[in-house]
Amino acid sequence: MEGTLSEDDGLIRDSSMDLNDSTSDPHMALALGALGIELNLDGPDIGEPCIGMEFDSDEAAKEYYISYANRVGFGVRMNKSRRSRKDDTVIMRRFVCTREGFHSKRVIYDDGKKKRKRGTTREGCMAMIEVIRKDHGKWVVTKLITEHTHMVAFPGKVQPRVDNSIIQNSSGLLHATSSGGFGNLKNFNRGIRVNPFGEGGEAEGLLEYLKKMQAENPAFFYAIQVDNNNCMTNVFWADAKARMAYQYFGDAVTFDTTYKKTKYMMPFATFRGVNNHLQSVTFGCALLMDETKGSYVWLFETWLSAMGGHHPDTLVTDRDKAMEGAITRVFPNARHWFCNWHILSRCKQRLSDVYLKYATLKRDLKECINHSETVEEFDTRWELILDKYNLWDNPWLQSLYDVRQRWAPAYQKGTFFPELSASQRSESLNKFFKRNFNSKTSLLVFIARFDQEMASQYEKEAQADFAAAYTKPLLRTPSPIEKQAAEVYTKEIFDKFQEEFIESLGYYVDKIEDGPNNKYNVTKEEDNRRAYIVIFSEPEKKASCSCYKFESSGILCRHILRVFFIVGIRVLPEYYILKRWTRDAASSVILDERATEPGLNFQDCLVAWYNDLCLDAVKYGIEGAMSSEIYKVAKAALQKALAEVVAAKNTQRKGQQNMQRFARLQKMQYKMPLPKLQTKKTPARSTQD
């Protein structure tokens, strides 16, 4: 053991000994977030620990904390001890959760021996108890932390530890195998959520489904997380279309965990975004058995790998402590927001008694959250709600207000994030669950129905692409700006732009400041109480508005459009046309950055090139299957391109063969022995000569 001096002249000793298991086998530690057979512990009721508790010995304190941990459902190990400098007896002991701290990174040396990859359960949990021996001989609790950073088991039930390893498959790199699988799992870590994996070997069925999908499309990606017993814990997959869509519309992503809303739902989560038709698009799916920080880190890193390593600008999730820690680690530069739909849904649960008492509370909260245009207006409405319903002392609302910058739209203006319309919100994952899932639905049936939903989603996207290419929207004015917008935007985006353009005609403008950046006051004719400030730069032909609509949605607001009309701008500057909202949003060729990144080894380059070409092939198939004529053109072009690739490959192969032949000839020339020269014999001269 290593020792360091303490603050009060004692010797501190660190230990990683697990105390829950009498066999001292670290693999049997009773830790949080595990999945497997539950063990019922029958024993006396253990009270809650508190500062000042006294024990006759350190052993009694240890036994108490182990019993308390078994009741709550977490693992215990001894972390530190301190000895007296006078008689070298132990005067302090500290017991911690088995998930305390983090494993240090060790250098692994390759000595040719096959090593088993070990997982880790350390995730920085701070739960602990520290007892010190006082002068009167009693051991007293002096430090105590009862909060955990992870989910704990239900009272009376504890579960064996999970060590996480990864089986992942992308483009045929690794093939997953299953031993035991989900059929070995009796309950989730919460002990109440419906088990979708059942007893019928559905893990094998899921694995066969994933292999089949990848056999049909090599760009299909999946990854499986397993524990020490080779049982699956978490699964992620994404098809080629999802991976391709992320390249165009992955600037803003929602991690949808709607299943948490009802405890009997399938633990099924999706990464979602919005395309150029304002339709919901899926960037990947996951089955989450374990909801610890470590599992979320695995999921986010796996998803990021499947998406080519491109980080989203904004990520919206449910409010969850473990998830928040994982996002900070995996996406340190992304803006992490909380979904206000989940916030309102949670308010209904947390304030159920107040909702029953006041029927107008729900409406007032919605108006405050969704219709406050400024920070000041939001704060004023919030305070009025607290006054009206006497909720100043409500801890739930206070905790929400403390993090309002991460979920209130008024605080998020100026940051781009596309929103779905009200009609499309009805197609959310929550509605899908209600239509297709009950407690008896099997995993494979659920996935088959979700595949049907995805097929319907892709069909609607194809129909919208076709309509955008072959139909023209109805213009309501002779303005060249409206005509320009109709030519570049999709129908759905143009409808929103047209609404702003028509509404701009009802506003009047007053110049309030002159100079390089002119400042204008824009108000509506019948309501001049609410004014908007537009700043216009004449040299750059750029404008900004106090409503921040363009920065938030990528569509110009009515106030800037009115100023453009006043200053004589008749054509939209290219800066104000976001490519993601245009008809050609998915037409650009995106090269996988990893394919050109220097420093990659040859095997990694092969994988990156293969993935990049597969994504392009999927897009080629979508564009080429529009009609019989287009199919024939696409087929001929593809055959021609394939012939050119094969010819280039043969040319390269012949060049390599010639180089190898030349090298062999040179090698043979150097090894060939030189011929010996014959020496001429000269006749000896006679003595007479």
TrEMBL record:
Domain of life assignment: Eukaryota
Keyword Cell division among UniProt keywords: no
Domain SWIM-type: 532-568
Gene Ontology BP annotations: regulation of DNA-templated transcription
Alphabetized SMART domains for the sequence: ZnF_PMZ
Pfam families, sorted: FAR1 (PF03101), MULE (PF10551), SWIM (PF04434)
Residue numbers spanned by region Disordered: 1-20
Functional summary from the UniProt entry: Putative transcription activator involved in regulating light control of development.
Protein name: Protein FAR1-RELATED SEQUENCE
Natural source organism: Musa acuminata subsp. malaccensis
Taxonomy of the source species: Eukaryota, Viridiplantae, Streptophyta, Embryophyta, Tracheophyta
